[in-house]
């Protein structure tokens, strides 16, 4: 699963321009990866996942840090002994998002773009 996710990232699935669809693809992939970690991955895969998400959360692009945060948000059903590590990583990434937003490094709203009302 992680290999497929990183392949999509390399092919810029998550950055297809200003299309609303790009945000939907990003959201669905984040949900799937977080769910996979919580329910189906083996110890070696979990280690690779944590390494990947940690690296994603340390990238200079706000969008990547936000993606790491959202992926971790979808790991809710992980085993209890893993929750401490996930919580610590999520708190670290959340703080980085706040600092980036305060410094103007990233998009502050993080919300969806909405078109004109019909």
- Work out the helicity level: 55-70%
Structural domain count: 1
**Percent of residues in beta strands:** under 5%
Class inferred from helices and paired strands: mainly alpha
Average pLDDT level:
79
Shape: globular
Number of beta-strand segments: 0
Query: End-to-end span in angstroms?
Result: 40 Å
Tell me the radius of gyration. Answer: 15 Å
Order of helices and strands: HHHHH
Number of helices: 5
- Can you tell me the residue ranges where pLDDT is under 50 for at least 5 consecutive residues? 108-118
Described by strand count, sense and barrel closure, the largest sheet is: none
Account of the 3D structure:
The chain contains 5 helices and no strands. With 118 residues, it is mostly helical. The protein has one domain. α2 (20-39) packs across α4 and α3 packs antiparallel against α4 (62-73). The longest helix is centred in the last third of the chain and has 24 residues, at 80-103. The chain is globular, with a radius of gyration of 15 Å.
Summarize the structure.
The chain is mainly alpha-helical and 118 residues long. It has 5 helices and no strands.
List the helices and strands and how they pair.
Blueprint: H1 2-10, H2 20-39, H3 43-57, H4 62-73, H5 80-103
Short descriptors:
single chain, 118 residues, mainly alpha, 5 helices
């Amino acid at each position: 699963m992680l290999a497929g996710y990183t392949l999509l990232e390399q092919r810029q699935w998550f950055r297809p321009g200003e299309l609303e669809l790009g945000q939907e693809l990003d959201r669905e992939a984040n949900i799937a990866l977080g769910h996979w970690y919580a329910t189906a991955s083996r110890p070696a895969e979990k280690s690779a996942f944590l390494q990947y998400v940690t690296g994603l959360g340390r990238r200079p692009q706000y969008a990547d840090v936000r993606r790491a945060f959202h992926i971790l948000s979808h790991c809710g059903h992980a085993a209890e002994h893993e929750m401490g590590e996930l919580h610590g990583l999520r708190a670290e990434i959340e703080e980085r998002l706040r600092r980036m937003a305060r410094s103007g490094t990233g998009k502050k709203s993080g919300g969806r773009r909405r078109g004109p009302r019909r």
